[in-house]
Structure formats: C-alpha cells, structure tokens
Specification:
The complex is a heterodimer of chains A (276) and B (289). Chain A is mainly α and 276 residues long. Chain A is built from 15 helices and no strands. Chain A folds into two domains: 2-50, no CATH class; 61-275, MetI-like fold (Orthogonal Bundle), CATH 1.10.3720.10. The radius of gyration of chain A is 23 Å and the shape is globular. A two-stranded antiparallel sheet of chain B has the order 1-2. The radius of gyration of chain B is 24 Å and the shape is globular.
C-alpha cells in the first residue's frame, strides 16, 4: 500500500512537471530539428538532431541582431536589479530599525506590486519622449527598477529585522556614522538577502515584456520583444526551427539562474508574499 | 534606536521616495490631468480641460466592459484553479520533496520563463501543422480542436496561465504545509485522526491564510494579464481576449485614443485601490482578532 502511494506520487509529479514545462520541452525539441523534419515530424522526439537553427539565430542581419537584444536585456536588467537595492537599502534600514515609514510608506510601496503598471505606462511614455529616454537601455532599466522596488524593500526590511540590533548599537556607541554603519556593518551581514534580491530582480527584469514593447523601438529592444521579430523574419511563413531556437536562447539566462538559485528564489517569493 | 539628528531618517528614505515620485507620482498626476482633458498627440503639452467627457465615453464603451469582464473572469478562474492545483500538489507530493528538495526546482522552472516567451512558445505548441499538441491529438483522438478558435480560446488561455503559475500557489502552500508544527499533527494522530480528516480539520484551516494570499496575488496578476495573451492571441476573435491591460495598450498605441486610454487607466487604478483597501482591512481584522 505504501509503495503504491509512493508510485502514485511519482506519477503525479511527472505528469505535473511535464505539463507545466511542456512549452519549454517542445520548443527545445523543435529547435533541434531540421526544417524538413519539423514539417514531417511534429512529435516530441528528434530523428536527426542539428544545431543549424542556433547558428541561424546567431547570424546578425540588418533586421535581426540577437546579440544586441541580449546585451540590451542584460544592461537594462542589471540596472533594474541593482538600482532598487541602492534605493531600498537605506530606506529598509530606517523602516526596520527606527520604525520610520512603517505605517504609511511601507504599505504604500508594498501595495504598488499589485498595481497594474500599464496605468503608468502612458505618462511614462510621454515623459520619456520629453527627456529623451525613449528607446534607451537606461530608460528601460529605470522602469524595471520601479517594478522591482517593492519586493526589494520587503526582502531587505525582513533581512535587517533579523539582525540583532546590538550589532549596530555597539558601532553607534563607538561613534560610527549612520552611513558607515549601514555600509560596513549591516550590509555585509545582509549579503544573502542582497544576493537574493539581486537575482530575483534580475530574473523579473529580464522577463518583463510590456515596457520593453512600449518604450523601445530599435536601439534598446530587449530580447523578450526581439524574439518575436524572428517570427516574421523572412517574407514567407514562420521559420519554426529558428523561432524555437531564439526562444530557448531568450529564456535560458533566467531559467539557468532560477535552477541554480531555486532555494533563495522560493524563499524570497514566499517571504515577499506572506510578510508583504 | 534613536537617530543621531532629526534629518537622518528622512535622508535615508529620500532616494527611494524621490525616485518613486518621479517615476510613479508624476505619471499619476499626468494621468489625472489628461483623463479630464481633451487630448490628442498634437496637444500633449497643452491639454485642454474638458471635464468628465473621457470617462463618459469609456463607461459607455462596450469594449471597455468586455475587457473588464474578461479580466475579472480570467483572474478569478485562473487564481482558483492555480490555488486548488497548487494545494493538491503541495499536500500530495510533500513526502517526495522532503528528501529531494531539488525536485522543487523542476516545478518552479515554468515561473522563470518570461510569460511573453511562454505565449510565443504556445504559438508553436498549438500550431496546426508543426505543433506537437495537435499532432498527438490527431494520433490519439483522430481529431484536434481549434485551440485558438473563438469557442476554445478562453479555455486555452486559462490553461496556459494556470500551467505556468500553479507553481507559485504550490510554493506558498508547500511552505505553509511544511510549517505546520509537528506537535499539532502528533496530538491529532494520537486521537486517531485519519489523514483526510486531519487535512480537513487541522491542516487546511492552518493553511487558509496562505491560500488566501496566494489567491489574491494570482487574481491580481491574472486580472492585469498582458504578455502571454498579447503575443499569442492579440485581442482575440472579436476582441474576446482583450484584457484591461491590452485594452489600454491598444487604445493608446494602435488607435491613438489617448483620452480613452488614460481614463480607462484611472478607472483601473481606482478599482485596484478599492480592492487593496478592502483586502488590507480584512487582513488587519484577522491579525487583530
């Protein structure tokens, strides 16, 4: 009986894992097929694996440049992951240690996560047009920082709350200034939380689509938007092998990060949800 | 701990607050002004106040209500399905994960893929001629439904969203389930409670707050859905899959109806604000009770 239940659990796990990862699995399989095979064999196995589609994706043409999309995504995501930490860390210190802003600022910022950002998209588009941030990596990165800020604040407030207060009181008595307390004493102890915030922010920023679509046209196109260009690459129908390969390339960085750091990410997701 | 001087705390908060004011506060003000103005792309810098005309137009627009209805239904259905499935997986598979936590990574993987990419991937997966799913439907059932046809598209989109985000509900439920104190379970099993009764009378009530949070977060995300639907179906047959986000996007970028788009944004803002206030009141009452 016990063995039967365990077997049943494995079956349920496998079915769930395959069903939820089905789009990635079938895209990966398709990306390894030749063009001829894609039309003759749509199934989930490959007769003659080939890397030809990936070679085609990496070819830079006048219209399509995967390297520039990846570079844009990387730069914008780095800004979008680092800036919230710089902005939220001192604020998190004030909230956690002094209770300053705990009653109004913290709930307001935390609840921003629930606001559909499309609400702000139109004025931001106009604002960017005026100040020349439209279609720039910096402009995209700044918006991604807005997206990541609420969760960064929650994670960092929780992290600072977990540090014994004696640590910074001792430093204060020794005459340390607030800046050096935060930088030299609190920040090193918070390193795991800072790393988690960064990784989670990077993945979120990389995967963002709406602002990439609206705020970029040519120069700063991120890979989530750029990937869709490959669907209409050549005059004829969609080249499914190439399209599949580009989707795998675009999805790879966050997925790899996620697989390596799944513990930290699950921790920050649940903490952000439950304590936020 | 006391601050060294009275400016210290405000200075610590200032960078974040100024940043948010610039990137959300200012746009919010622009939104409000524009929503009460007659506005075109030519008069962006000199909006002419015109009262509530934009709101009247939006509220009389059947497409707006269709989008609102779609978003509401989509958010509720996907959040409910995700929570039910996630809860089931968390409880039933918990013994597997206890010894092999890396299995969690497999279940979490769908969340790491951009929803826009997932939407594009389904263009391949569901494609009549090259897609694996229709292929297997033909082999096994002799026929394949038209997944993106007007009859099935809502179901298809719900399944796509649910499959990607059940892991989130699962994760919250799993952590809550593992967090139930062992003494509670032991005390109950001494009483001879069977596993199902223990689940119903002890474990589920303890997990309920977490499930409610998961439902709320997933509802909001489902309600504001954009990426996967936009790349997979656009606005769908007859606008049937236009979510609120897509409605606003199309009104602004495709139709150039700035007033409509901005007024719809403000209505969405107020609706979400009301929801947030209600939810935070409820959770405060829970916390104080």
């Amino acid at each position: 009986m016990k063995g039967f239940v365990t077997a049943l659990r494995w079956i349920v796990f496998l079915v769930a894992a395959v069903a939820m990862n089905f789009p990635v699995i079938s895209t990966l399989v398709t990306s390894l097929k030749t063009n001829a095979e894609i039309s003759s064999n749509p199934g989930l196995w490959v007769q003659k694996p080939t890397l030809e589609n990936y070679a085609r994706v990496l070819e830079v043409t006048e219209r399509l440049d995967i390297f520039s999309y990846l570079f844009n995504s990387a730069v914008a995501s780095l800004i979008g992951a680092i800036l919230p930490i710089i902005l939220a860390f001192p604020a998190a210190y004030a909230v956690a240690r002094r209770g300053y802003g705990r009653n109004i600022l913290l709930p307001v910022v935390v609840n921003l996560r629930a606001m559909p950002l499309v609400i702000f998209a139109i004025p931001i588009y106009m604002m960017y047009q005026w100040v020349g941030l439209l279609d720039t990596r910096l402009g995209l990165g700044l918006i991604l920082a807005v997206v990541n800020l609420p969760l960064a604040l929650v994670i960092l407030v929780n992290a600072i709350n977990d540090i014994p207060i004696e640590l910074d009181e001792a430093a204060r008595i020794d005459g340390a200034k607030i800046g050096s307390i935060i930088m030299r004493i609190v920040a090193p102890v918070c390193r795991p939380a800072l790393a988690t915030t960064f990784i989670f922010g990077f993945i979120t920023a990389w995967n963002e689509f709406l602002f990439g679509l609206m705020l970029t046209t040519r120069e700063a196109t991120p890979v989530t938007v750029g990937a869709s260009f490959f669907f209409s690459a050549s005059g004829g129908g969609v080249q499914w092998g190439v399209a599949a390969a580009v989707m795998i390339v675009a999805a790879l960085p966050p997925v790899l990060l996620g697989l390596i750091m799944y513990r930290q990410i699950s921790g920050s997701m649940t903490a952000g949800a439950v304590k936020g | 701990m006391l601050a060294a001087n009275k400016y210290e705390n405000p200075i610590l908060l200032a960078p974040m607050v100024l940043f948010l004011l610039a990137f959300l506060g200012f746009p919010a003000v622009v939104d409000i002004i524009y929503s009460f103005s007659e506005i075109t792309f030519e008069t962006l810098r000199a909006p002419k106040l015109s009262g509530i005309g934009n709101y009247q137009k939006v509220l009389a627009d059947p497409e707006f209500w269709q989008a609102a209805g779609f978003s509401l239904k989509f958010g509720l259905v996907t959040a409910a399905l995700e929570c039910l499935l996630g809860l089931f997986l968390a409880v039933f598979l918990s013994p597997l994960f206890e010894k092999r936590t890396w299995l969690l990574a497999v279940i979490m993987m769908p969340m790491m893929v951009a929803p826009a990419m997932v939407g594009l991937m389904y263009r391949l997966v569901l494609h009549e001629f090259v897609g694996p799913l229709p292929y297997y439907f033909y082999i096994w059932f002799g026929d394949s439904p038209s997944f993106l046809g007007s009859d099935n598209i809502f179901t298809t989109l719900v399944i796509i969203e649910t499959l990607q985000w059940t892991p989130f509900a699962f994760l919250l439920c799993y952590v809550a389930y593992r967090g139930i104190p062992a003494e509670l379970r032991e005390a109950a099993s001494v009483d001879g409670a069977k596993a199902l009764r223990m689940l119903w009378y002890i474990e589920l009530p303890l997990m309920l707050p977490t499930i409610a949070i998961a439902f709320f977060i997933r509802f909001i995300d489902g309600f504001r859905v954009f990426d996967n639907i936009f790349v997979l179906a656009g606005s769908g047959p007859g606008g049937s899959t236009t979510s609120m986000s897509i409605f606003i996007y199309l009104a602004f970028f495709k139709l150039g109806k700035i007033g409509t788009a901005v007024a719809a944004s403000m209505l969405l803002f107020v609706a979400v604000l009301c929801l947030l206030v209600v939810v935070s009141r409820l959770s405060q009452r829970r916390a104080s009770a």
